[in-house]
Design goal:
The protein is mostly helical and about 170 residues long. It has a domain at about 50-165: Four Helix Bundle (Hemerythrin (Met), subunit A) (Up-down Bundle). Helices cover about 85% and strands about 0% of the residues. The chain is built from 5 helices and no strands. It has helices at about 1-75, 85-90, 95-110, 115-135, 145-165. The chain is rod-shaped, with a radius of gyration of 31 Å. The termini are far apart.
């Protein structure tokens, strides 16, 4: 009987060891999968933040270019202001190029942005589109302060979204 107990004890020990090995392998594999998924999510979030930061910076530069170009046109036209509607229908080439570049970047930002930022972008962009024909035609620049406030709201929303606090 001692021989059988030795065999049974050895086989039982092997079975228990194998069982613990399988359980350990299962949980280790599961934890590794979860870790890989978390790392992939972090990489995707990091890449999205980088893409947003880049697109937002390029958009702000292009919006400033539209503003600066309209301001330069204001200096040219302020002594003999033009009709803002006619001016917007046929803007100078330099302003037209700035507007086209800004619109392309606005679409890119809309695709990358979250909902709160899209709302602020639409608000700012509508203000910019109201401002440039009036300013560029040499008429009143009073819209500028409202557009500046909207600009700062947009920049704050962009910062919050890139920082992950939005």
């Amino acid at each position: 009987m001692t021989g059988w107990s030795t065999v049974i004890g050895t086989l039982g020990g092997v079975a228990v060891t194998a069982l613990f090995g399988l359980v350990t392998a299962y949980f280790t594999h599961r934890w590794q999968q979860e870790r890989v998924q978390q790392e992939q999510q972090l990489v995707a979030q990091r890449e999205l933040r980088a893409a947003r930061r880049d697109a937002y910076a390029r958009y702000l530069v292009s919006a400033q270019r539209v503003f600066d170009t309209a301001k330069a046109q204001y200096s040219v036209n302020r002594d003999q202001p033009l009709d803002p509607i006619e001016f917007s229908a046929n803007p100078p080439e330099e302003l037209l190029v700035a507007i086209a570049a800004n619109e392309a970047l606005r679409v890119e930002v809309m695709l990358l942005a979250g909902e709160p930022l899209r709302v602020r972008l639409e608000t700012y962009d509508s203000g910019l589109w109201k401002l440039w024909p009036v300013m560029g035609s040499g008429n009143d620049r009073n819209l500028r302060s409202d557009t500046t406030r909207k600009y700062h709201d947009l920049v704050r929303a962009m910062h919050d979204e890139v920082a992950g606090t939005a």
